[in-house]
Structures are given as C-alpha cells and as structure tokens.
User: Fold these one by one.
Assistant:
Number 1:
Amino acid sequence: MRAVIIGGGIAGTVTAMALRRAGIDASVHEAYPSGGEDAGAFLTIMHNGMDALRAIGAEGPVVENSFGAVGLELVTPDGRTVDRRSFDIDGLAGPRTMTRASLYRTLQEEAISRGIAVERGKRLVAASPGIARFEDGSTAEGDILIGADGLRSVVRTIIDPDCPPPRSTGLDVVYGYTTDTSVPQAPSVYRMVQSLHAFFGYTSAPDGSTYWFARLPAAEGVRVGLSAAEWRAAAFAAFDGEPLPAAEIIRSTGDDVFGGHSYDVPLTPVWSTASMVLVGDAAHAASPAAGQGASMALEDSVVLAKCLRDLPDAPTAFAAYERLRRARVEKLVASSAALSSGTTSDEGRNWLYQHHIEWDETIAA
C-alpha cells in the first residue's frame, strides 16, 4: 500500500512517520513553499500529544526544540492568582511549547531523516481514486489519499462537497513573542489572565523570552488584513489601563506578532471514502481555548497508521479509525467551544491528558 498525504504540517508529517513505522510507504505534499508565514504564533503539545509522538519514537526532536512547564495559574481581572494547578498527572510527561514554524520544521526534518519524501509548493486542486492533481500540473499516485490539509481542507470538500464550512468562534486570537527580560515572567508555568474584556495567557522560556496570546471577542470580518503592528495595537488596547501584566508584555513585543480570526469544525459528517480519509483539523478543528489542536492531530496520525497496519483493507481501516476517534475529538471541540464562550471552566481535563496509545497493541475491526 502507498499513501499520498496532502498537507505537510503536524498531522501530515506525523502520519507519514507513523505509516513508515507500520511498514506503509507515504509521501507528503505541502501547499506552501516554506513555513514561517505565521511568525510569532506558538502552540503547546500536551501530555497526550507527547504520548502519541512517543509511540512512534518521534518525541526527541520536539523536546530538543521546545521548553516545558510544570503547571498553570489562573489570574483574575484585579491581578489576584486564584488557582494553581500542577501538570504532574500520574507521572505523564508534561506539555511542551514551541513556535508553530519551529514545530513544522522539526517534524519535516525528522520525516525526511526517516526516508520520507516531503514536497513543497504542491497545492491540491483535484483528486480521484489513486491520483492527486496539483496546481502546478504535477500529480501523485497512491492507493490511498490522506487529507491533513487543515481547517480549509480541500480533501474534505472532495470527500463531501456538502460538508459544513468552518464555524466562527467569535474570537480573534493574537500571538506574540518578546525577548525583553524586564517584563513580568512566568517561568515553567502558563499564567492565564481573565481581564474585564478579553483573555490573556503567557509563559516564559528558560532564556527569559516570553510567549503570549490574547483572545479578543470579535465578529468574523471585523479585523481583516491587519499588519503585525496593527494586531499588536488591537491586543494592547484590550488590556491597557488594567492592573495586569498583559499590556506591558504586549508593548515590549516587536514584529513577532501574528493574529487572525478563530474557527472550529464541530461536525464533519463524512470522514472517508473507500480511498480517502481525513486527519487532524481537516476532520475536527477545535478553538484554541483547550490547547489541544496539535495533540489531537498527533493522536489521529498514530491511530490511523495502526488501523491501516492491522486491518485487511483501507475501508475497514478507515471505519475503525473513525470509530476510535470521532466521539473523543467531537467532545474536545464542544468542550473547547464552551471554554471560548465562557460557559464552562477548564477544570477536569484528565480525560484529555491521560489518553495513551500503545503501538504494539493490535486494532480490531
């Protein structure tokens, strides 16, 4: 069996590595010629995501290029710390933080080192059983096609032309990065600040640099085409004058800022055909509130590879994969949407973190 994977991000590269470990040949085809267009954006791989990487022996490069945290603090609008939580959950390895561009580069380099072909500048325009066609006129052939092409998945619309579009979460999210070590630090923790008008979170790396994000309530289309400076100004305005460190941290940030409107995909009715299947955000994008998008994609990648390894044909494998994954990821999307809207707290996440994948365990149909 040979797999053609559309998308060279988290889900695409890790699916390729998991398939390789399962003895299945795969190639990765990424639409963009290079990464880094979202400079300043960062993400966190939680316990369950690191567990998925560990299942295929791919956690090492991620650990080497990231930094960890031991817990989380919750801060009220008047600056009081009202809750502290430890990430020490039954001895599980804690979360890792890194820039999105660095994670993409790390995973692609690891995939290439394992003999996997990664082609950039390959934007999918059409696909049929056995063949993918790209904007530059080239093609790729395989027995199955895996859509790891994210929120605006082309593969999703090929599988089901009537699939629901992504849904606005009612939030703009701004990410930033500052090397100014004089600003308030949050070493080894994620400090989450609920202000009167918006939500701010930050953590500090061992070198004293600080990664931050701001979730700003906004209707879709209100802020479009903003420059880095304009996104920084929008985030600053949301916290200016409050007794919180947010405005100071934002003011210290240069052009390492990235912002955009946030969407989720609460339901994808059809995940697969006889020869095509979706993984990661292409199937079930969540709002960033729960911090689980990358980790769920990593889980998908490894579980799909195990299903293809253990079951007799692609349709049977795809059905088992969906059975194992759908309820969990749709629960996560709903939970994250509730966090974004403020209708629930972020307590009780052990059902997310304690998920474990045993590579040698056989999948049954």
Number 2:
Amino acid sequence: QNRLFPLRCTVQKYMWGKFGCDSLVAAIAKNNDTDLTVTVPYAELWMGTHPSGPSMVMLQNGDGGGGSSTRLPFLFKVLSVRTALSIQAHPNKTLAAKLHREKPQHYKDDNHKPEMTIAVTPFEALCSFQKINSVLENCRACPELVAVVGREAVAAPAALHTSRLREAVVVPALKRVFTRLMTAEQARVHEHGCPGGGRGGRERRLITRRAREQALARIHEQYPHDVGVFCVYLLNYLVLEPSRNCLGTALFLNANEPHAYLFGDCIECMAESDNVVRAGLTPKFKDVDVLCEMLTYDDGPPYMVPPLLIDGGAERYIAPVPEFLVDRAMVEAGGAVLLPASPFVSIVVVVEGRGEL
C-alpha cells in the first residue's frame, strides 16, 4: 500500500525573502502550481501542521485533505534569505506559555522553538555571543558603538581574566553591553549608527575585505541607523557550507540563544512553534525588554551538529531535543539511497534534481 502522499504547502512571502526565480522556496512551490511573480519575495515554505500555515494532503482526485486533529511535533521549512532577519531568540516552554497568555497577538502558540539549520547554499548567520574578551575588544575598537553604549559598559571587569565563575562575571558583562545597546535612545543610534564611518579611508578599505565587515556593511545598507547592525561585533559570524562531496555541519539553536540569518538558502527543522522575540533589524513588533532578560549570555561556541552516516547512505542530523531529526540524501545519477523507516510521520522534500521514491 502506497503510504506516500503529496503535500500542498504554505508559502510565506516575508519581505526579507528572495524574489521570484532566485528563491529556492519558489522553485519548490512551483510543484504546487504556484504562479511565480518576479517582484514577490518567496521567503519560507512551511511543511507541517502549525495553524499559521498548515500543509494539505493531496488526495488522488486532486482535492486537499484537511481537518485532522493530529498535530506534528515538528515544523519543517525551506528558507530563502535575501536580507537580514531580525536579531531574535526563541523562548523556552515556560516563557512561551507566559508570552502566549499575555500577548497572544504576537505569540501565537505556547510552545518552545528549538531549531536546526542545514545549508543548501552557503548560508550566513549571526549566532550566540563571541567570547567575552572578543566582544569587549570589538566594542572598544568601534568608536560608534562605544558612543552608543557608553565607555563603562565596555570596560573589562577586573576579575575577567581570573574568575571561573561564569554567572558572576561573563553573564553580567555580556548582559550589560547587549542591554545598553538594544535599549539605546534612537537619536543616539541615528547619530552614531554607521560603524566605521569615522575611520580613515585606507583603513576602511582594508577592513571591508574581511567577511564580517562586509556583512556589517551590507546589513547597514539594508537597515540604516538600526541598533541591530552593531550586533555583528557581539555575535559569532558563521557561513554554513552545503554538503556536496563532504558532510555539511548543521547549526542548532536552543531556547534563549540570540541569532539572525543574513543570506542564503537552507533547510530548517524545529519544534512546532512560531514564537520569535525580536529586538532589531525588523519592522515587526520588538519585545526588547523580554529579549534582553531571556538570553543565556553564554559565550561558548555555537552548537554545531555533525551528521552521522547511516545504513543506506543517508546522513542523519540528530538534534538534542525529542521533537525531530533530519536525514539528508545526496543521490548520484543512476544511484540510490535507502531512507530508514520511521515510527512516525515523516516529510520528504526534494531541493534539487529529479528522482523516484
């Protein structure tokens, strides 16, 4: 008995998405008879049962089946990012329930949203705080940022180099810098909101050769005088490489970790939620105080998930949460990959090429 059913999936047309045929989301959505428009941003393809964008099972007669009360524990997405997404984090279950109860117009559900990102094209992101020493050094090297947050906020604590008590030293130092930045008066940000603008021309040309500074210049062009631009100095800058002939590592983002996607196409899997707490690089609702209070302020390295090669030839990405895992198959011409059986509902998406299932 055939247990494979085609889905008609929701396309989210957020303004940060890639336009028309440049969008991987649009290329996949064409299989659902979506008429492409070159001026429309196709940002996200949602595969799952979240009420903000549920997928429909296509029956043999061409009609869409729906109305089931069964909910998937995960939400599977394709993202095509043209301009930077907001500086954001996702709440844990306790905070999600509180936000949903108090602000249901902004937080549509009461679930947490841990997520894993796998690059399809080179994918740029900011995520988690850099080491505290790097953060403070970066801040002091940027006069514009010092002018926004104040010199005392970027002064290294006396015990920074000797104390092993993260909660007593690192967390307060990072929280002070980030909170001062995100709550700065808009007039001050507008006055000083062009990082590097006061530097000499030759120095500036040298700096912009660095990938991080190139990203900063691009973000500033997209969101001039936005406080979120300065987060390039605070968060880790990553470029996730897609898997081709080697195993590509995924990025996992747990609750309360700051991040912002900058450019590229990716696959994303998460617990079934759409809760996002934002504080910069967005025209959407900003919940600055909540974001500043909820973060872990951990300056450890980003949580990278290497894939495991499993029987049948697929790569498996195992997230440290029970709601989901992701298998990835790279099939050579004339070849085959065996996807392991799943005890629950699985979703398969083809992002490139053609084949038979």
Number 3:
Amino acid sequence: MERAESSSTEPAKAIKPIDRKSVHQICSGQVVLSLSTAVKELVENSLDAGATNIDLKLKDYGVDLIEVSDNGCGVEEENFEGLTLKHHTSKIQEFADLTQVETFGFRGEALSSLCALSDVTISTCHALAKVGTRLVFDHNGKIIQKAPYPRPRGTTVSVQQLFSTLPVRHKEFQRNIKKLQSLIPFVQLPPSDSVCEEYGLSCSDALHNLFYKTMFAEMEIVGQFNLGFIITKLNEDLFIVDQHATDEKYNFEMLQQHTVLQGQRLIPVTERAKLISLPTSKNWTFGPQDIDELIFLLSDSPGVMCRPSRVKQMFASRACRKSVMIGTALNTSEMKKLITHMGEMDHPWNCPHGRPTMRHIANLGVISQN
C-alpha cells in the first residue's frame, strides 16, 4: 500500500514535443505501410512519368532491395533538390488544383517517406540531358552524393533496407516478408509475336493458347527421352515435360487438398493464447514463428484457406519422395497418366520448388517450311 501511495503522488511527466526527425519517421511509417505500398508508390511514379516499360527487382523478397526502373521522361536537374523533400511535388501547387489532378500521385510524400524509412538512391536521365545522374539521399531527403551516371532516358529508384530506421517494424517486416510476396500478383502471358519470331515458335492461335490447361487432354505421347522427360505433341507443336517435376506438383496439390492436420489445442489467457506444446506432423515440428505466420495470414485473408510456409515445405518434401524419379522408364499409359494429371492441377506450370514442368520444343510446320 505504501508503494502504491508513493507512486500515485509522483509528478506527471512533462509534455514535450517529439524531435522533428522522429516525427518524420513515425509519419512516414503511416504512408509506406508495407512492401506492396512501397512498390505501388514507385510504379505509380513511373506511370506518371509516362513510362511504357517498367522493371521491378526484389532482392531477398524486398528485404535487401526494391528497385523500380522505367523509361519515362526522367527528372530535370533543377528538380533534384526537391525530388525527395516532404510535400514537394510537380503535380499540384495549391488545394484548388486537386479538382484537375490526372496523375496517381500528388501529395509529395512517397519518396520523402521512403528516404525516412530506408536508404534511397536514384539514377535518372531527362530527355534533354546529355548524361544521366546518380543521386544518394539521407533519411531527411537531402542529397549527400551526386555524380554523372551513364544510362538511357528514364529513372531508377533503389530502396535498400526498408523500415531499417524503425527497428520493431523492420523486425516484423523481415519475419513476415515471405508472406508479403503474395501481395504482388504476377501473371504469366503467352509469347508475343516478336518472341515467337526470335525463338522460331509458331504464332498460331493454337500456340498462343498453350498456357491453357485444357490442352493436356488433347496431347499425344511421342515417347520418353533420356529416362527423365516425356515428349508430347499437340497439333504441330512438340513439348518436353519433366516427369519428376510434373508428378511432384500433382502430388503436392493432392497433399494440399486432402491432408488434414490435427489442430493444436491453445489455452486462452485473457486476450492472448498460450501454446502448451509444439505441433508436429510425423517428423516435422512447428514452432511459435509458424503460429505467428498463420495468425498473420488469417488476419490478412479472412475466409481463405491459409497454411504457414513451413507446412507447404513439408508437403513439397513428401511430394518429392513419392513422385516418379528421373531415371525411371515409363510406358505409354504411365506417361499419359502424368500428362492427364497436369490438366487437373490448379497450377501445373512449375514444381513446388519453382522448376518448370514443361517447355515448348518446336513447331513442325515451321521446321518443314525451313
């Protein structure tokens, strides 16, 4: 009781302003919330610059590096100083201009926030410039290095160590980064006419549809090559299929669909939960990090079937061991079964480890013409 009374009589701490550097970091953390936000802001800047080609590079899923390059108009030298300063923009000058905004960005906060949260380097070459320039910025958005840099017209923004100035956010970002990669969708498109011409592919409608799963049921089995690959034929197109990779992916998807993992009992303690033992599945053990990842996935995608990345690794390992191996001779019916399974998969194009399951070899019509 005496301790409680003494603590209640202590004078309240004085209210003081937070230093400007800390304010900038905290506010920037509300502008750039995640990897996807950072990429979105940079891509939108490229689009606003009139870019027709944008390249995105992520190193270690974005933990080490996010780099967006474009062929836009570039940045004029007189705009270098204000490029990454807070609330500096070429899009608007006053509030009334908001009614006529036709660009994605206009607040002048994105690059300033990225400087506050990471190490930013920008190389740019304006359409009227004779040579490009490489700029290195500090966390306040001020230029600390400036040097000539040969490059074509356009701009490249490199963001290293995102959230490094916010230790707690940075640690959480590193822990969850493999889950965040799913926030950026990638679509595999059929080859363009120029690609077909460069590699001697047919640009017929049949080949342009080669990425549709319905084709597998129509494929003919030509034979087996090197005891590891299945040669198939669809109309005049020849394909080579990795027998192990495709069987592995089929088994992986079947495990994903039909395996039921026994739930781990969690004992609620007020608003938290206590893990009383480590969940296991045969020789695989799951720890608190896997539980944290699952909770993140469930909160980020409510109503969607979610599994931690380690569960997928377990399924991939089991699928690999039970699949047809390289070096195994297959008869026609066995090869046909593997090809039929490809048409039944959700994602037949790559094995669980990312290796392609099939490739187009040649078009017999093009070969006969040559």
